[in-house]
Design goal:
This protein has 124 residues and is an all-beta fold. Helices cover 0% and strands 48% of the residues. A hairpin with a 4-residue loop joins strand 7 (67-72) and strand 8.
């Protein structure tokens, strides 16, 4: 079973940056996608960004231009660089792995493995 370990959350002021990391115990799939989701208090979980084994990426409109997803296959790790953070970015952030066949999209029910979540708090 694949294990995902999310880290990097914290408390920052509005306008600052954070980088989240998602370390996977196994990356030996031919086709895969890893996505970041977030869930704010009282709100539904939403997709934030996704990266495929091909290197292509997707972003939610709310973070496009501020967040960047990247991968280091040698380290079995996916990163989410979050710049110009806003109070509305406050949430628990989860990484998740879809190792089924493509296509891939930020639909939570498609993802097979989930990390434990890391809390991001942005103060105004």
């Amino acid at each position: 079973e694949v294990q995902l370990q999310a880290s990097g959350g914290g408390l920052v002021e509005s306008g600052r940056s954070l980088r989240l990391s998602c370390a996977a115990s196994d990356f030996s799939f031919d086709d895969w996608a890893i996505a970041w989701f977030r869930q704010a208090p009282g709100k539904e979980r939403e997709g934030v960004s996704l990266i495929r084994n091909t290197g292509t990426t997707d972003y939610a409109d709310s973070v496009n231009g501020r967040f960047t997803i990247s991968r280091d296959v040698a380290k079995n790790t996916v990163y989410l660089q979050m710049n110009n953070l806003r109070p509305e970015d406050t949430a628990v952030y989860y990484c998740a792995l879809d190792w089924g066949p493509p296509p891939y999209a930020m639909e939570s029910w498609e993802f097979d493995y989930w990390g434990q979540g890391t809390l991001v708090t942005v103060s105004s």
